[in-house]
């Protein structure tokens, strides 16, 4: 059984009288422990696909099985529950709270999950240590470099011990040296903790660090650099 199995997933956005097909029959299988990237031009549907993969949104049609469970028709609460248990997110803009320190940023998902204070602190510190920032726990985001801020965001994604980390343009705001360092952190976590990584990138150099590259164009799979193309009608 694949960790992720999407079958002919389509997403149509309805804005007033206009409907826009953002995803058009995407079928993908992703195994536990894969390290892959998604590439495609702006507007091709990458973020829409990531939102569905991350249970932030549901497809208009088609099926999405996560760990064998059909998650294509969950309501908001059920989606949140799946996200809390299985998925960590990393965004291009880091999305850290400016007024609280690294530790408190990392603790946030646990606060939402209702974890007790002492456990929260221990898990948060452990996550920061995993990304090499154990000694920066009390720094505010403004006191950290861009690469360090993104590491804090990764620590926050790790704190719930997710099976999957989804990263939408995680290196988009970083220079190329910092991007490679970040990719090394991702790779290490993938190897040591068997976390499945799926990241969107525009940067072929970043994609080169991954084992599999899925190319999306106009909401369709254009190429899958490891497996063959699957198409649906
Ligand atoms: N919430 C939304 N409502 C309406 N249209 C949307 C929405 N989100 C994205 N779109 C449209 O869907 C298409 C795919 O968008 P997106 O998934 O963000 O592409 P990418 O991440 O590859 O740039 C684009 O044409 C975009 O304008
Ligand atoms: Mg996008």
Give a brief description.
The chain is 35% helix and 27% strand. With 233 residues, the chain is an alpha/beta fold.
* Order of H and E elements: EEEHEEHEHHHEHEHEE
Rg computed from alpha carbons, rounded to a whole number of angstroms: 18 Å
Instruction: Tell me the structural class.
Output: alpha/beta
Amount of helix = 25-40%
Through-space gap between termini: 24 Å
| Tally of discrete structural domains | 1
Strand order across the biggest sheet? Answer: 6-7-8-3-9-10
Gross CATH architecture: 3-Layer(aba) Sandwich
Shape descriptor: globular
What integer is the average pLDDT?
93
Which hetero ligands occur in this complex?
adenosine-5'-diphosphate, magnesium ion
Query: What's the CATH topology name?
Result: Rossmann fold
The poorly predicted ranges are none
Question: Could you characterize what this model shows?
Answer:
With 233 residues, this protein is α/β, with parallel strands linked by helices. The chain has a single domain, classed as P-loop containing nucleotide triphosphate hydrolases (Rossmann fold). 35% of the residues lie in helices and 27% in strands. It is built from seven helices and ten strands. The strands form two sheets. Strands 6-7-8-3-9-10 form a six-stranded mixed sheet, sandwiched between helices. It has a four-stranded antiparallel sheet with strand order 2-1-4-5, with helices on one face. α3 packs parallel to α5. The radius of gyration is 18 Å and the shape is globular.
């Amino acid at each position: 059984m694949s960790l992720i199995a999407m079958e002919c997933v389509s997403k149509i956005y309805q804005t007033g009288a206009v409907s826009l097909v953002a995803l058009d029959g995407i079928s993908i299988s992703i195994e536990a422990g894969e390290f892959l990237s998604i590439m495609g031009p702006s507007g091709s549907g990458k973020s829409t696909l990531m939102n569905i993969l991350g249970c932030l949104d549901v497809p208009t049609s088609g099926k999405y099985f996560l760990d064998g469970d059909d998650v294509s028709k969950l309501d908001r609460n059920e989606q949140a529950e799946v996200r809390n248990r299985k998925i960590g997110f990393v965004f291009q803009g880091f999305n850290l709270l400016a007024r609280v320190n690294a530790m408190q940023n990392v603790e946030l998902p646990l606060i939402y999950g209702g974890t007790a204070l002492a456990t929260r602190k221990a898990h948060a510190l452990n996550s920061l240590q995993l990304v090499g920032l154990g000694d920066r726990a009390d720094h505010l985001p403004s006191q950290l470099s861009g690469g360090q801020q993104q590491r804090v965001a990764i620590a926050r994604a790790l704190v719930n011990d997710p099976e999957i980390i989804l990263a939408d343009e995680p290196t988009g705001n970083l220079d190329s040296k910092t991007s490679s360092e970040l990719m090394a952190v991702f790779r290490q976590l993938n190897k040591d903790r068997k976390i499945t990584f799926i990241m969107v990138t525009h940067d072929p150099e970043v994609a080169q660090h991954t084992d599999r590259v899925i190319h999306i164009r106009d909401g369709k799979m254009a190429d899958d650099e490891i497996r063959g193309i699957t198409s649906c009608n």
